[in-house]
Amino acid sequence: MLADQLEAMERSARSVDGSPDLSFLVDGLRSEREQGITIDVAYRYFATPTRSFILADTPGHVEYTRNTVTGASTARLGVLLIDARNGLVEQTRRHSVVLALLRVPHVVLAVNKIDLVDFDRGVFDRIATEFTRLTSALGYSEGAVRCVPVSAKWGDNVVTRSERTPWYDGPTLLEHLESVPSAPDPTGVGFRFPVQAVITADSARSPAYRGYAGLVAAGVVRVGDDVVVLPDGGRTTVAGIDTFDGPLDQAAAGDSVVLRLGQHAELGRGALIAAPERAPTPRHTIEATVAWLHDTPLRADTELLVRHGTRTTPGSVTSVTHRLDTQTLALEQDPGDLRINDIGQITLRVDDPLPVDDYDTVAPTGSFLLIEPESGDTLATGLVGRPLVTSPLPTGAGS
Question: Phi, psi at residue 73, to the nearest 5°?
Fold first, then answer.
């Protein structure tokens, strides 16, 4: 955290009792400060002696679900902050569904304002039990979920253990954040590389140079590896891996590189370079789960654009098969449409075949966006397959 941000907050941001208002560290928009809510996704960076962190502070209000999806899409851990006086509310359940849908592997429920319920263990235990029931129904294992009683204002169980909760023997919030596993080993996932741009040069020093620039979306690639180019299916090898700082022997997920291919393969933006083993099969018809983010309802026969990786193709929704009830976690069949902030399952038909993976297998190439053709508005975020497997909650458990 930058020192000038802390100083500015100390000078200008005060809560009703005169203490510093810590929300100003992440609520940067004037409208956020005036309304006392988070609207946009705010990214902040901090580090401890153990680990470096990127914090994506996302809105809690249902009308900003699209920003919650954005912030959670790359997260390794989700922290849900609730008021101990209110317990789980509709937003808590909806955001838990979003985290499960996006396969965020770890979830923490920070039961805040525990001081305002007199540090009552019974209150915390009831909330923790209800949350554990919810996350279990969403497919989370017991070890992936942690509930922590905190007072963000006074610091109880945030960094140091609180003497006012002697009944809580778990880690503080920061201790838990420092202990969860880091990102998975990229070698266990098949190589995926969407081509962002074609780099060419023709000079005495670099005759007929042709490279393919992009971000390694998954896996690892090495010089000499066999690869397949999709959707065409041509086979070739990696002749070189270039960067601004010089050539590499290998590149892994998250690296921005330029690949040179053997046999002078020629392809364009939107192609996908992949490992031949378990390479995705290009599809015209895609079964998917979507979070609908637009005011106009989604119905069958809706025409739109599908953005997958660096490729965009026309498509249409042939059917809306299910809608998720975020209160009960039951799937409603044949709902007719999806409305703003609904999560549901659809069948999608695309004009050009897309080399998609199931989201459960390779998340970066198992996700896509639906776009309104004329305005360019983002309509939905989509996940190939049916990654959200839920068990309906018992009657009354979601209330």
Answer: -65, -25
The mean-pLDDT minimum among 277-291, 350-364, 382-396 falls in 382-396
* Dist CA 287 CA 255 (whole Å): 30
Q: Is the pLDDT of residue 128 over 50?
A: yes
% of residues, the chain, pLDDT over 90: 65
Cα-based torsion angle of the residue sequence 156, 161, 164, 166 in order, rounded to the nearest 10 degrees: 140
What SS3 state is found at 398? coil
Place of tokens 């992936």: 144
Query: pTM for this structure?
Result: 0.81
Which two structure tokens, joined as six digits, stand for 86? 């209110």
User: Across-strand partners of 145?
Assistant: 107
* 65-72 and 90-101 helices, crossing angle to 10°: 40
Measuring CA to CA, which residue among 54, 37, 36 is closest to residue 45?
Answer: 54
- The tokens of 19 are what? 């203490």
| H or E stretch covering 67 | helix 65-72
Place of tokens 């080399």: 355
Number of alpha carbons in the 13 Å side-chain half-sphere of residue 225: 23
Which of the residue ranges 37-41, 90-94, 344-348 has the most confident prediction, judged by mean pLDDT?
344-348
What DSSP element (H or E) covers 395? none
The encoded tokens of residue 306 equal 């599908």
